[in-house]
Each structure stands twice: as C-alpha cells, then as structure tokens.
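quick one before i forget lol
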Amino acid sequence: MSSRLSNQDADALRLWLSVTASAYAGDGIGLSLPPKPIGLMVLVKLWLESGAPVSYSDLRTALRLEEADKSLGNAIDLLVERGLVAKVKSRSDARARELSLTSEGRSVIGNLIQARHPKTQ
C-alpha cells in the first residue's frame, strides 16, 4: 500500500479532523458525542504533515484541546507504546520532543484509506 494520499483523501482527512475537533470543542449543535477519538486524530494529523515531526503544542492547537486536558498525553503514550508514533528530538529546541508517525502508524492510516477505496478485481 502506498503511503501517499490522493488530494481527495487528504482533503477528506483534513475536513474530518477539523469537523471532529470543532464538534468536541463545543462548536457542534448540541450533539451527544462519544468519547473524543484523540488517538485517531493524532494519527491523522501526523499523517497530514507528510512525515514532518509535530510539536505537542501544535497538536494541542490542531485538536483544539485545553492545556489542562490530559487526554492528549495519555493518547500519545498509548500510541508510542503500540509503536504507531515516535518521539523525536525537536529541530528547534534540544530540550523538547516532537512526534512523528512510525512505519506502523503510516500502515494503520494506509489500511483505513484502503478500506475506503477497496481494490476492484
């Protein structure tokens, strides 16, 4: 499975991420929502960055999470533990860590995209 997204798939993922973050930030229309899928949102955001590491603060902003919300750290820890995300040294601050997808993380997103576009025989 190619790790490249079509423009249409990338746009669909960007839209899903934006709508999901907005809905859970209280911008929705009073819907009763299940628990926020932060782990999946992290994977999608990292995928959309095309391999470039992303800082915790950039993720928190993109996912519209408050500083006090510990769910991002918990989700990241689980994704790292499962080998889907790696913590890497920041290019701009030697003390900081950034996040990037591992090959396994790219595979997970690739499988989701493949499920959306099954091969026709």
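fyi The chain has a mean pLDDT of 80.
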